[in-house]
Amino acid sequence: MNIPMVDLRGQYQSLKEEIRRQLDSVLEGSQFVLGPQGEALEQEIAAYCGVRHAIGVASGTDALHLALRAAGIGPGDEVITTPFTFIATAEAIAYVGAKAVFVDIDPQTFNICVDAVASAVGPRTRAVLPVHLFGQPADLAPLKQICDRHGLRLIEDCAQSFGAVYQGRMTGAWGDAGCFSFFPSKNLGCYGDGGMIVTNDDHLAAEIRMLRNHGSRERYYHAAIGYNSRLDDMQAAILRVKLKHIDDYNRARRRNAALYSELLQDAPVLTPVEDGKGCHVFHQYTLRAPRREDLQKTLSAAGIASAIYYPVPLHRQEVFAADCAGLSLPVAEQAAAEVLSLPMYPELTAEQIRLVCRTIADAAAR
What we know:
The chain is an alpha/beta fold. Helix content is 40%, strand content 14%. It folds into two domains: 8-243, Type I PLP-dependent aspartate aminotransferase-like (Major domain) (Aspartate Aminotransferase, domain 2), CATH 3.40.640.10; 246-365, Aspartate Aminotransferase, domain 1, CATH 3.90.1150.10. The protein has twelve helices and 14 strands.
């Protein structure tokens, strides 16, 4: 039995007829950019997240970039963020000419360490950019307190946390802006690239809408040098179908994660820790395994996929070498050396999970 990291084909088969009907309606209407499907999706996601505005953009990376620029972050500014994330988080900071200030992470949740953020605030700090890694919300309440105390922007990277809740509010609804990715493998994914920014800030929303459309508020009149970053109606139509199922999908992910953790409680690995402050939606199910490479080879030989998110923390990446020379973030560095993500998707069966866990137990016994 081969078990992939994610089974997009299986999910498509269950939604095939409805998705094709929606795509046909877009083709018949022939409004492909900033059309009715995109507008409807924005309204539905704003309602789902409990915010006033949702603005579709071309990718999760663009969501971060446009949110930072609309928030006035630019050259000479510093943005505190985590080194244990995909590079898009820090790329967006660099795109606006600001500097990413990396601080260490919590050893249990892998999310940014609140105390480290508090210690890193300086005269040039303009924003804090936490990542809700693997689907578990960062500790948003104290992060917001830090931002409010120092007059900083809070921009949430929600690329992996669609549907996650912290203290009764959706991720994305806590900060000045929340930035989502709809990359195909995400909890809510389209069939290409796509992203969304949510906010309660009317001015910020207006700026983002202008920036995503070539700096234009009125056709052929341009207030700024903007970008071509619009979520097309084909992708929006697909996402509207999937959005109806997202709570069921996330419940299935949590159920699968619970079974993994139950079956792996005696294995020589550390299973994911939920901090109890929010609802983890398990975009990834990520272990800590001291002998990770051996375990990954064993899984691969059995036809079971696994992945390392992320093998090199950002402060150790070549592109940030000049800014981070001599910087030591030991918790993130140790995590990068030990983490291993197992297959995780709503359609994963109990039989498949049991096979993965038996393989891990057999490897440990040998």
